[in-house]
């Protein structure tokens, strides 16, 4: 078994056609087919069902390919450790981010990366926490920016910033009359929240001391939608501090209420595998995010020290 064979089966699974996979691998189709057949013979297991079009991995094959991705990842990690001694500042970097953070970070982050680090090719995946965690573990992405703590022993969390929550309240809701809100003021009546797959939804329900089974006639897919629903239908919602900058209308700004005693916050961290070694790239990403986030939100440790892994 060789790393090349593992790369071939990963590529074939991705494209589903021997001809396309061979082209990507820069070899002939017969060579690709024979190499994979040799690996199947060595493992005494059929990795692909060739009767299907496009070609699909068998159930055993899926497990083999999943492990192959981890092996290839660890192999690349070892090469990077030897060749660059953690100082590589160029190349491809796959980055995940959750939807309730992406609107505030990604637009400026793409610009910052082009200006500051044009030699880094950033590949971004926007997905829920439940999707990003296995992607990190399987080495499908290098790192992800998400709300923490996750309390996962296989992952390392590096806090980047802390963001408070504010309430967005319609003029028709009794809470609008209050200049500031306490957590005890928040209730389930007329509360609009995100869909269950968003961790922000759970955080808001916990803040309002509402069970996760909270029933409402609609759960939004984005924070921007929540704001518009409150504008048109009344009630209130809870949004992250960074969303305030996206609210330009003075009438809408007047609907924002600070939540105090205590101020609710969420921790936002870069999450990596514990065996991740591309330290330079990790610091480049964190530095670019720091330039986007208001200074008062940045974790104090990042202001003084580089990230060590």
Descriptive overview:
It is a single chain. The protein has about 300 residues and is of the alpha/beta class. The chain folds into 3 domains: about 80 residues, Orthogonal Bundle (Arc Repressor Mutant, subunit A), CATH 1.10.10.10; about 110 residues, Periplasmic binding protein-like II (D-Maltodextrin-Binding Protein, domain 2); about 100 residues, Periplasmic binding protein-like II (D-Maltodextrin-Binding Protein, domain 2, 3-Layer(aba) Sandwich). The chain contains 11 helices and 10 strands. Strands 3, 4, 5, 6, 7, 8, 9 and 10 form an 8-stranded mixed sheet that branches. Strands 1-2 form a two-stranded antiparallel ribbon. β1 and β2 form a beta hairpin. α1 packs across α4. The relative contact order is 0.14. The mean pLDDT is about 90.
Overview in brief:
Helix 1 packs across helix 4. The mean pLDDT is 88.
Task: Quickly list its features.
309 residues, alpha/beta, Arc Repressor Mutant, subunit A, D-Maltodextrin-Binding Protein, domain 2, 3 domains, two-stranded antiparallel sheet, elongated
The domain tally reads 3
Overall CATH class of the largest domain:
Alpha Beta
Helix content: 40-55%
Order of helices and strands: HHHEEHEHEHEEEHHEHEEHH
- Give me the number of helical elements: 11
Query: In terms of quaternary structure, what is this?
Result: single chain
Shape, per Cα inertia axes: elongated
Unreliable runs: none
The CATH homologous superfamily of the largest domain is named Periplasmic binding protein-like II
């Amino acid at each position: 078994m060789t790393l090349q064979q593992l790369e071939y089966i990963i590529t074939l699974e991705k494209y589903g056609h021997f001809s396309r996979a061979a082209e990507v691998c820069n070899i002939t189709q017969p060579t690709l087919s024979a190499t994979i057949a040799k690996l199947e013979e060595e493992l005494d297991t059929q990795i692909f069902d060739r009767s299907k079009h496009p070609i699909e991995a068998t159930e055993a094959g899926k497990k083999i390919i999943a492990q192959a991705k981890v092996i290839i990842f660890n192999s690349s990690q070892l090469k990077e450790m030897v060749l660059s001694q953690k100082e590589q500042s160029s190349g491809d970097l796959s980055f995940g981010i959750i939807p309730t953070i992406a609107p505030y970070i990604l637009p400026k982050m793409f610009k910052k990366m082009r200006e500051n680090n044009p030699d880094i090719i950033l590949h971004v995946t926007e997905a829920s926490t439940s999707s990003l965690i296995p992607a990190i573990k399987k080495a499908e992405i290098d790192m992800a920016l998400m709300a923490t703590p996750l309390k996962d022993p296989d992952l390392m969390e590096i806090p980047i910033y802390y963001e408070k929550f504010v309430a967005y309240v319609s003029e028709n809701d009794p809470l609008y009359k209050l200049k500031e809100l306490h957590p005890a003021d928040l209730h389930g009546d007329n509360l609009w929240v995100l869909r269950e797959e968003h961790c922000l939804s759970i955080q808001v329900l916990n803040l309002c001391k509402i069970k996760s089974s909270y029933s409402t006639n609609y759960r939004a897919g984005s924070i921007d939608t929540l704001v518009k629903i409150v504008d048109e239908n009344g009630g209130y919602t809870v949004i992250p501090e960074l969303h305030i900058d996206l609210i330009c209308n003075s009438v809408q700004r007047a609907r924002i209420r600070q939540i105090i005693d205590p101020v609710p916050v969420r921790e936002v961290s870069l999450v990596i595998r514990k065996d991740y070694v591309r330290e330079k790239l990790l610091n480049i990403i964190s530095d670019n995010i720091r330039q986007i986030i208001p200074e008062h939100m940045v974790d104090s440790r990042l202001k003084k020290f580089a990230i060590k892994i």
